[in-house]
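Could you please consider the sequence and fold appended to this message?
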Amino acid sequence: HKALIQEIGGDTIMEPAQEREDSSLFGVAVAQWFFWLSKRHPSIDKKVATALLFSILLLPLVAAIVCFLLGQTMIGGILIFFYSIALSVVLFKASTHSRYAPRTEKDARASLSTLQFRFGQVRAKRTNDYDLYLPPGQKDTIQCACLLIPNEQVDRLAYSCIASKISDEGILVVVQNTEPHCLPCKLVGSGFEELSDIQRKVEQDYKIKEWAIGGHGVGSIPASLLAERLGIQKLVIWGACPFWNIDLSASKLAVLVVIGSNDGYWTNMSDEVRKKFKSMLPPRNERSVFIEMIQGGNHAGFAHYGPIPGDGELSIRLEEQQKKA
């Protein structure tokens, strides 16, 4: 994306797109820890996660120092040796952290040109926190706005095409910027404060009658966790998430789940896991719960990026999957 932006001369149009948090090697490592922990324990508090991190970092060093003070230099040396190896592995993983690239140059150009075209129509806006896609026609009151949280390691620009399609149907779409780490979870950058701040900023310019929130892949975790706390009653989940372990059975949310039939994360789930996933959704009521399958679609097909490890092949056109979604 960045190379194409420079090539086409879109760097001025894309401003501002600044990093918001610590993007140093240690900052990335900490973000990866929070992200890994929150996927497996969605309800964990940031203070607890931070305490666990410092415990893991400090306890081996304290134990090594105690061993040296007690004259157990060999044990202390072994502790330092393995601690150094573990720390090196963590920092190396952080140094190789990257984004999922567009599947083809054509897809990358489509993402950029769509956003540029919407800018020209005065139907798109970019801030440090989000990209905004407006419905056609200038209106003071918006019937519905959807806050969309991207999948992990996916740039927000990859959603410009599908967000534009949704906005054409009269829905204002807000795609969160999860930079610099692109790791959407409530402990890193998709927490209650960040999302409520986006709502507040959008509502300064537009009168929103109703909000919905959506998440793609891992982005569905913070969306599901925080929907009701944000005062939102409609939840959209794109793609299966193997780490989705959130009990919504007692909530009053209206939920739409859209999954591609070739989604590798869905097809690789056992029948028991799929059954558990469905049982954790709210019961069918007057607003209902819908699970829709897009035949031939895959996990990455909700945006312009991929392929990604573990996903199935896309057997329909990318534009067709996004139109159905």
